[in-house]
Write a structure and sequence with these properties.
The complex is a heterodimer of chains A (157) and B (424).
Chain A lengths: L3 H11 L11 H12 L4 H11 L3 H10 L11 E6 L2 H5 L2 H12 L12 E6 L11 E3 L3 E3 L4 H10 L2
Parallel strand pairs in A: 1-2
Antiparallel strand pairs in A: 1-3, 3-4
Chain B lengths: L17 H6 L4 H8 L4 H11 L11 H6 L10 E6 L8 H8 L1 H15 L3 E6 L4 H16 L15 E6 L9 H8 L23 E5 H13 L1 H7 L7 E8 L5 E6 L2 E2 H7 L9 E5 L8 E2 H5 L2 E2 L1 H6 L8 E6 L4 H15 L5 H18 L6 H13 L7 H26 L8
Parallel strand pairs in B: 1-2, 1-4, 2-3, 5-11
Antiparallel strand pairs in B: 5-6, 7-10, 8-9, 8-11
Classes of the chains: A alpha+beta (157), B alpha/beta (424).
The structure holds flavin mononucleotide (FMN), iron/sulfur cluster (SF4) and FE2/S2 (inorganic) cluster.
FE2/S2 (inorganic) cluster binds next to helix 5 of chain A.
């Protein structure tokens, strides 16, 4: 279900924790699985649990508790805009409006071609660079303006 | 003076590299302590003299916390660093791990030596992936250079340190939720006592400190606790990183001496943007009370200074609001945050945060009633003090302080169905 590369990454995470606490690696293992497959299906979660030799329910609880896991398919580029206070004070609304208009979908939705999903997020701990979003939980884009958003969207394949 | 402690490398090229850190004497303090076998009691004493108080928000004296760790223990003790900053307006620890990660690593290694911890974890906020990757690289560098791992400097002191990546849950900043999360569970706070010092990671004695707290340690042990205390003022030793965000010309982190008058900090951040006027400031993150311009302009930025002025230092997350800010709409966003991030274990917090959000939303939607203001105050008071962790209190603070200081704006909104400030 997961590639050799992903499994090797999970194995590396496992070395951080004592042998009798493999569950500690579940957060990163789920993240690695999501990086490869785009989202976490019940089967993927069960696979990860199996690989770590922990109960499937334990992995499912983690996948549902933390906000950055996707339990439904998302677009190829998931854009999460922080709309919390420091970002709001510096115009995150304008970024949200711009994305919605440009992509023709609302927050929480995916474009019909499956290319983009846009979402609202909570504080990302980068408030000095507000307004901002991150892409696929990885790439942080700060000091946004509508023009800069267009530039970034233009680069995404 | 600025950038004297945690941001010591910031003015140099490649501030986050091992080479740069070593060029200012980095890891020499650790080496001296470990090879000269400096006594743990002596180190803890210096940390006490320094006046360092936990930079994660609660301000608990670090030296005292360290003295709670059991000295003799048959088994592994753990050291945990809290880099999970997710309280809106807080972004200081991110700059430590990307601009001076080795000072944090050295500080944690000194703490591990002092407390007898064999293994450490740095729990890093989920959204800052690139900085997490950078920190992991710094760990590899430190290992390769012999500052982490087995038998350091040829002694019997060994310390392994790893990074653990969060994945989007503010509550994991609470130390026992964070510990649950390291164990691979949902981040739900534990009842205290027992405290982490006796029952932490995997049930073992664990010391938890904030990133900025650990990163201050090498300075304290290099120059002595008194030198650190002398940078600050009474009850607030040292420097503090203030993360300034919102309506200023130059948002960013400013490491300055404790006790700096607020107007000075504001001018470092370029003053209010667009030539507007200051309206209000949340001085320490949304779990600290909002302050109207007049009270913050006369305050000094330290524990006592801010508490005298009616709020608190918190994590030093200074959120600046100009005169175009609608306090009702701002409170709605904050109330949503606490509602969304409540872990749901305690009824007063789970139900109360939902109530608060729905009532503020109803006011913003033009359906508010005058009684709602008392209702908000009642619900807030009923959350306070009845929950497992401090998130419940944190959710009540903005509601109580916004209404206290900006009541006419709330009343106007209820009467007219629109904002007194923006007209919308
Ligand atoms: C809801 C909540 C969120 C918290 N978030 C953080 C955080 O992001 N970073 C942090 O260092 N401490 C946070 N804390 C405080 C920690 O529980 C703990 O007191 C701190 O990490 C101890 O380190 P210190 O003594 O060095 O400050 C939070 C507490 C609560 C109740
Ligand atoms: S106070 Fe709220 S966040 Fe804290 S444990 Fe209780 S329900 Fe969870
Ligand atoms: S409020 Fe947007 S990153 Fe903190």
């Amino acid at each position: 279900m997961l590639s050799q590369e992903s499994l090797a990454r999970i194995d590396r995470e496992l070395t951080k924790y004592p042998d009798d606490h493999r569950q500690s690696a579940v957060m990163s293992a789920l993240r690695i699985a999501q990086d490869e497959l785009g989202w976490l299906s019940k089967d993927t979660i069960a696979f990860v649990a199996d690989y770590l030799r922990i109960p499937a329910i334990a992995a499912l609880e983690v996948a549902t508790f933390y906000n950055m896991y996707e339990l439904e398919p998302v677009g190829r580029h998931k854009i999460t805009v922080c709309t919390n206070i420091s970002c709001m004070l510096r115009g995150s609304d304008e970024i949200v409006d711009h994305l919605e208009k440009r992509l023709g979908v609302h927050m929480g939705e995916t474009t019909p071609d499956g290319k983009y999903t846009i979402k609202e997020g909570e504080c990302m701990g980068c408030c000095g660079g507000a307004p901002l979003f991150h892409i696929n939980n990885k790439r942080m884009c700060e000091y946004l303006t509508p023009e800069k958003v267009d530039e970034i969207l233009g680069e995404l394949k | 003076m600025a950038n004297e402690v945690c941001f010591r490398t910031l003015h140099l090229p490649n501030p986050g590299s091992l080479e740069t850190y070593r060029s200012i004497g980095g890891y020499e303090t650790l080496k001296r302590i470990v090879t000269e076998k400096v006594k743990a009691t002596e180190i803890i004493n210096q940390v006490k003299i320094s006046g360092l108080r936990g930079r994660g928000g609660a301000g608990f004296p670090t030296g005292l916390k360290w003295s709670f760790m059991p000295r003799y223990y048959d088994g592994t003790k753990y050291l945990v660093c809290n880099t999970d900053e997710g309280e809106p307006g807080t972004f200081k620890d991110r700059d430590i791990i990307r601009y001076n990660p080795h000072q944090l690593i050295e500080g944690m290694a000194i703490a591990a030596y002092t407390l007898g911890a064999r293994v450490g974890y740095n729990y890093i906020h989920g959204e800052i992936w690139e900085d997490y990757v950078f920190f992991e690289r710094a760990l590899d560098e430190a290992r390769a250079a012999g500052f982490l791992g087995e038998n350091l400097f040829g002694t019997n002191f060994s310390f392994d340190l790893y990074a653990h990546h969060g994945y989007g849950a503010y509550i994991c900043g609470e130390e026992t939720a964070l510990i649950e999360s390291i164990e691979g569970k949902k981040g739900q706070p534990r009842f205290k006592p027992p405290f982490p010092a006796s029952f932490g990671v995997y049930g073992k004695p664990t010391n938890v400190n904030n990133t900025e707290s650990y990163a201050s340690i090498p300075f304290i042990l290099q120059h002595g606790g008194q030198a650190f205390q002398d940078l600050g003022v009474a009850n607030s030793g040292g420097t503090k990183i203030f993360a300034v965000s919102g309506h200023v010309e130059k948002p960013g982190n400013y490491e300055v001496n404790m006790g700096i008058p607020f107007p000075e900090l504001l001018s470092l951040a370029g003053g209010i943007w667009k030539g507007r006027q200051l309206k209000a400031v949340i001085p320490g993150g949304p779990s600290t009370a909002v302050m109207p311009a007049a009270s913050i302009m006369g305050a000094t930025m330290d524990y006592d200074g801010l508490s005298k002025a009616g709020s608190s230092l918190g994590a030093g997350s200074v959120i600046i609001m100009d005169d175009s800010t609608c306090m009702v709409q701002t409170l709605k966003r904050l109330s949503y945050f606490f509602f969304e991030e409540s872990c749901g274990q305690c009824t007063p917090c789970r139900e109360g945060t939902g109530w608060l959000y729905r009532v503020v939303k109803r006011i913003v939607d033009g359906e508010g009633r005058m009684e709602d203001l008392d209702l908000l105050t009642d619900v807030s008071s009923n959350i306070s003090g009845r929950t497992i962790c401090a998130l419940g209190d944190a959710a009540a603070t903005p509601v109580l302080s916004f209404i206290k200081h900006f009541r006419p704006e709330f009343e106007y909104y209820i009467q007219h169905g629109r904002s007194m400030v923006t007209g919308k």
